[in-house]
Amino acid sequence: MKTKAAVLWGVHQDWDVIEVDLDPPKDGEVLIRFEAAGLCHSDEHLRHGDLVPRFPIVGGHEGAGVIEEVGPGVTRVKPGDHVVCSFIPSCGHCRFCSTGHQNLCDMGATIMDGCLPDGTYRFHYQGQDLGGLCMLGTFSQYAVISEASCVKVDDDFDLSTAVLVGCGVPTGWGSAVHAAEVEPGDTVVIYGIGGIGINAVQGAHFAGAKEVIAVDPLSNKREMASQLGATHTVSSAEEAATLIGDLTRGVGADKAIVTVDIVNEAVVQAGFNAIRKGGTMVITGLADPSKYTVQLPGAVMTLFEKTVKGTLFGSSNPVYEIGKLLDLYRAGLLKLDELVTKTYTLDEINQGYQDLLDGKNIRGVIIHEH
Ligand SMILES: NC(=O)c1ccc[n+]([C@@H]2O[C@H](COP(=O)([O-])OP(=O)(O)OC[C@H]3O[C@@H](n4cnc5c(N)ncnc54)[C@H](O)[C@@H]3O)[C@@H](O)[C@H]2O)c1
Ligand SMILES: [Zn+2]
Ligand SMILES: [Zn+2]
């Protein structure tokens, strides 16, 4: 069949919205009709060269849709099921899945290549194979994906908001709740309030932090942070350092979470300096892979027992967490509607990314037309 998709042919190019060919599902695969796709900064990294995929690639790794058809042997979903995709598939039986770390599933090894688990491709254009980012390619009206990427959700959720629990919400929320292990009474500082950071604010607040300090140079981001649980907002790491000193009698923050769009040495050092003895800094944002962006005084790390860690998908188990977060949304304890600043058609994708770079959006969402 044919499907309209946004393709990236190489670094520093725009998204090219074209009609591509899509094969039917093979063993363990499904045909999904995507209803919505979130505009995460990670896709933008492909354009900068901060994440290096196999080109050409259909973008998009935050997606929600409806199963249209299933291939042989599929047991997790059936036609008509509503699904939020996980940007890391989970096989259920590798070392990582079977020890409660589905976010590190071995099937994730090819998410930058974008092939399906058998090593072949379902998107094609004029004889060329195209990958789907994170084995998904949610910037397409339709895709063939592995059942291991599918998490069935209740039919009554609006997929144009539920889509956010495919990446931004669990990544941010889990950065606070799972990776930083925020505890009641903690002082937490979060650098960068985009689609990820705003959910770290929600997670830290929900976990009972006494103080949630949101750092972002943009006033619209700080305003949203205040609405969703930040107790304090500042525009720079320097201001945050002074504030944390005042709030903690010079002790330091319990947890720092780095969710800026492009991580650099300065923000990592600011987070490290902001935490107390025995404190934890979590780095969620991505960085130019050719650079050493974590440059820290090892003696201070040792003598002050500071922990510095990375996190993928908020260190969550997608199959459990996606449904749990939607239940919290239904209960009014997690905000999703407020996070969607603007919706776009697929043809408007380049405008959507320009708006992200201009700092206008907490999250932009593509609503697919069929
Ligand atoms: N680890 C994971 O599993 C995972 C998953 C998804 C996204 N990410 C990464 O998380 C990062 C954030 O993604 P996003 O979609 O929220 O991006 P975004 O562009 O929506 O938000 C980034 C925010 O950081 C702010 N910022 C930039 N420099 C800053 C600084 N020095 N101090 C304070 N604020 C600063 C910007 O103003 C912006 O509001 C990206 O690098 C993305 O690739 C990681
Ligand atoms: Zn993402
Ligand atoms: Zn696995």
What is the alpha-carbon Rg in Å? 20 Å
The helix content is 10-25%
Give a list of the ligands.
nicotinamide-adenine-dinucleotide, zinc ion
Any idea what the CATH superfamily of the largest domain is called? Medium-chain alcohol dehydrogenases, catalytic domain
* CATH hierarchy, class of the largest domain: Alpha Beta
Reading the helices and strands in chain order gives EEEHEEEEEEEHHEHEHEHEHEHEHEHE
Helical segment tally?
10
Explain what you see.
With 370 residues, the protein is α/β, with parallel strands linked by helices. It has two domains: 2-166 and 336-367, Quinone Oxidoreductase, Chain A, domain 1; 172-311, NAD(P)-binding Rossmann-like Domain (Rossmann fold), CATH 3.40.50.720. Helix content is 25%, strand content 26%. The protein has ten helices and 18 strands. The chain has helices at 41-48, 159-162, 168-179, 197-206, 219-227, 237-247, 265-274, 298-303, 318-330, 349-357, and strands at 2-8, 16-22, 29-38, 57-58, 63-70, 82-85, 123-125, 128-132, 142-146, 150-153, 187-191, 211-215, 232-234, 253-258, 275-283, 307-310, 340-344, 363-367. The strands form three sheets. Strands 3, 5, 6, 9, 10, 17 and 18 form a seven-stranded mixed β-sheet that branches. Strands 13-12-11-14-15-16 form a six-stranded parallel β-sheet, with helices on both faces. Helix 3 (168-179) packs across helix 4 (197-206) and helix 6 packs parallel to helix 7. The longest helix has 13 residues, at 318-330. The protein is globular and about 65 Å long.
Keywords:
single chain; 370 residues; alpha/beta; Quinone Oxidoreductase, Chain A, domain 1; Rossmann fold; 2 domains; seven-stranded mixed sheet; six-stranded parallel sheet; 10 helices; 18 strands; binds nicotinamide-adenine-dinucleotide; binds zinc ion
